[in-house]
Give the backbone structure.
Amino acid sequence: MPLDSSSTMSVVIPVHNESAYVAGAIEELFDEISDLPTPITVLLVENGSTDGTADAVRDLLPRFPRLSLLELPTPDYGAAMRAGFLATDGAWVVNFDIDYFSADFLRSVVDVAPNADIVLASKRAEGSDDRRSPMRRFATFSFNQILRFVLASGVSDTHGMKAIRRAVVDDIAAAVISTQDLFDTELVVRAERAGYRIVEVPTLVEEKREARTSLVRRVPRTLSGVWRIRRSLDS
């Protein structure tokens, strides 16, 4: 079922040092979403790139009227996501990565929208097909257990594609203290505690390229970040 005619989706994609990758990815994304009935815009939030990513995106703008660019001076994935969420005006705000997006997920959002305030593409939901390496699947499981025990979260996966109602962004985003890897996780947990309706849908996870950041290097930052969230929620 389509969303009503006044509903739109704003897709936010943080990008950092993606000059060689962004053109092909955007072409693929717009090709995937071309037959969706819902009005969709795409905002690329370039943050602190040193390889000409912003110029590469500007070259794409004339070809894709629904594409726009926001530039930030500092490399920070979470800060870029927050800035993008707040800069868009869609009734739903969708978070994709430049190498992880899905028109099928957007179709799922359309289907469950009447009964949801947040829609999560959960790699651990029944029916999901997670084709990543065993190590990365274990990392997702471990992170979820940390959220379950430290933050009392009941969702199965906060990292990945998600769609959030504009009203939730307006209500929750200003209170989020996390940037880097945990902005979206904290936003979801705060929304969960506030009683917003969260629906998890199955997804296909197939990496298009090797991960750009080391899991081992992210662990200390993630653990300290989760603890900061806990202190903030309890204060």
In short: Residues 220 and 226 are 10 Å apart (CA to CA). DSSP finds eight helices and nine strands in the chain.
